[in-house]
C-alpha cells in the first residue's frame, strides 16, 4: 500500500514539474495543480495510512492512541484543497487577462515557431 501511495505522489510531482517547465501558461497552471495534489497526498500520508481506525479519541473504542488515525493532516489537506481551488481560479483569471493584453499565452512572451 505504501509503495503504491509513494509512486502516486512521485508520478504526480514529476508530471507537475514537467508541466511547470512547459512554455504555455495553461500547461504551467496544470503543472502547479498537479504539484499541489502531490503535496496534499504527501501531507495526508504523514497522518499514517490506516484503515478502519477512528480519527477522534474515544476510550471505549480505541484506548490505545497508536490505534487511531491522526486528524491534523486530514484538516490540513482539506484546507489546502480549498486554497488550491481559489489559487487555480485566480491563475485562470490572470491567464485570460494576460492572453487578452498580449495576444499570446507563452510564459516567456515569444510565439512558437510552427
Automatic annotation (TrEMBL):
It comes from Bordetella genomosp. 2. It holds the Pfam family Oxidored_q2. This is Na+/H+ antiporter subunit C. It is found in: Cell membrane. It comes from the Bacteria. It is a multi-pass membrane protein. InterPro entries: CPA3_antiporter_subunitC, NUOK/Mnh_C1-like. The keyword Cell membrane applies. Belongs to the CPA3 antiporters (TC 2.A.63) subunit C family. The lineage of its organism: Bacteria, Pseudomonadati, Pseudomonadota, Betaproteobacteria, Burkholderiales. Keywords: Cell membrane, Membrane, Transmembrane, Transmembrane helix. GO terms for cellular component: plasma membrane. The chain crosses the membrane at residues 6-21, 28-46, 75-97.
Amino acid at each position: 500500500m505504501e509503495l503504491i501511495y509513494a509512486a502516486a505522489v512521485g508520478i504526480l510531482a514529476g508530471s507537475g514539474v514537467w508541466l511547470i517547465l512547459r512554455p504555455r501558461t495553461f500547461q504551467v497552471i496544470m503543472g502547479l495543480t498537479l504539484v499541489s495534489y502531490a503535496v496534499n497526498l504527501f501531507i495526508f500520508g504523514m497522518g499514517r495510512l490506516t484503515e478502519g481506525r477512528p480519527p477522534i479519541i474515544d476510550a471505549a473504542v480505541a484506548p490505545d492512541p497508536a490505534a487511531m488515525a491522526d486528524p491534523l493532516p486530514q484538516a490540513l489537506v482539506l484546507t489546502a484543497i480549498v486554497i488550491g481551488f481559489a489559487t487555480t481560479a485566480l491563475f485562470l483569471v490572470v491567464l485570460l487577462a494576460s492572453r487578452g493584453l498580449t495576444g499570446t499565452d507563452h510564459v516567456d512572451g515569444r510565439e512558437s515557431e510552427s
